[in-house]
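Quarterly update from the structural biology core.
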Amino acid sequence: MILYEYPLNERIRTYLRLQHLFARFNKLTQRSDAIDHHYALTTIFEIMEVASRSELKSEILKDIERHKQMLNGYRGNPSISEKALDLIIEQLDQRFEALNTMAGKLGSALGESEFLNSIKSRSAIPGGTCEFDLPAYHAWQHHEPAARQANLFEWSQHFGPLANSIQLMLKMMRESGSTQKVMATAGQLQQNLPQGRNFQLLRLRIDDSLNLTPEISCNRLLVVIRLMQQQADGKLIASKDDTPFEMTLCA
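Predicted structure, tokenized:
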């Protein structure tokens, strides 16, 4: 099964982009080749770009508070474990405190590094990080892998509270969803969203062997999913088959 996730607002779109970048960074830094560490560093630059939105920090803090209020509303419910509730609220408090104590824009301190700025500016140019353009960077790539990994870890810590907060927010959101089996009739599904609920994330699971790709469009009232068949040349054409798949709406 292939999992597809579709954000239903701009805030969740940003969360998913950042989570994607953090996952890529973590995978690249586990390797030892200089080329992997080059792409880990350019991933940091992408994270800096996405995290530079001035309102991002306040949005995450509001989101954490919203989840705390929701969870506190479950207190006294006999079907809810108070111990588990206290644990997750404690995690939310820790994320809030760590993020709230970060001064200025997220990752802004990295922008003061002359070494990183020189690489960042040249990375936007095709082939711009060649050895004759950035000899200091070329020398860094010849350091021992452990030394490069230590540098990358140090630079990434400027985004540690951000990564931890987003990971917890998305985990809670995904766990809030209820999965249903649905059918795309003649390759298409159109479904009204329940009123009175503010859904934020749509998740689909489709059998990989079907060779189908979903095209998703939605708003707060309606979800439309078209399943596309990929041809040998990569071209997508609309499927006409009745196809079952799993869909989850997360609030």
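The two ends are 23 Å apart (CA to CA).
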